[in-house]
Sequence to fold (233 residues):
Amino acid sequence: QITLKESGPTLVKPTQTLTLTCTFSGFSLSTNGVSVGWIRQPPGKALEWLALIYWDDDKRYSPSLKSRLTITKDTSKNQVVLTMTNMDPVDTATYYCAHRGRIWGSGTYYDYWGQGTPVTVSS
Amino acid sequence: QSALTQPASVSGSPGQSITISCTGTSSDVGAYNYVSWYQQHPGKAPKLMLYDVSDRPSGVSNRFSGSKSGNTASLTISGLQAEDEADYYCSSYTSSYTSVFGGGTKLTVL
Fold:
């Protein structure tokens, strides 16, 4: 049974760096083909794809946010960490981590999602 | 990359069929058969409904179907039920090896 859970601060100040942790179970990021992504959703708005990390440490980032994002993994802890620098009120959103459903090949879809963690950016 | 284009809202009566479109470009929707659809109820995490344009994960009703033509993908829900009322998002793999979501469509069951 695959589960994911996001954790991190609920409130950050503008210009600060946000660090979110995704703790998962039911799979291992050391297994060939496995990957985990981050997606966010501002209140009342659409989903926005942020980043993806593969079992082999390959990484993909949203082009519009690439300069601010870093995704890493700790295989021993079954965790994926997303950091976002220079936070702004427009970054206020619920942040989700999710398991990429495809194990081999191209193409990405997310078959298991965490419950999401809300982050507010305000001074 | 720009968000995929979806209608803001669609509606239908119980038992009817509705279709939600998702329009991208030749660099995403048109480039691969890697379009997925998600259902999201208020306050809940998204749920995968279709992947690879038309494949259904285990447990998803066969009332949900998908198709694609050129740069536009479509989600069709037949035999509408009250529980189908939710927001729906499409997503596509891109030629930059990233993903992009649509703007979302609110489905109202009248």
User: Anything to note?
Assistant: Residues 68 and 74 of chain B are 6 Å apart (CA to CA). The two ends of chain B are 35 Å apart (CA to CA).
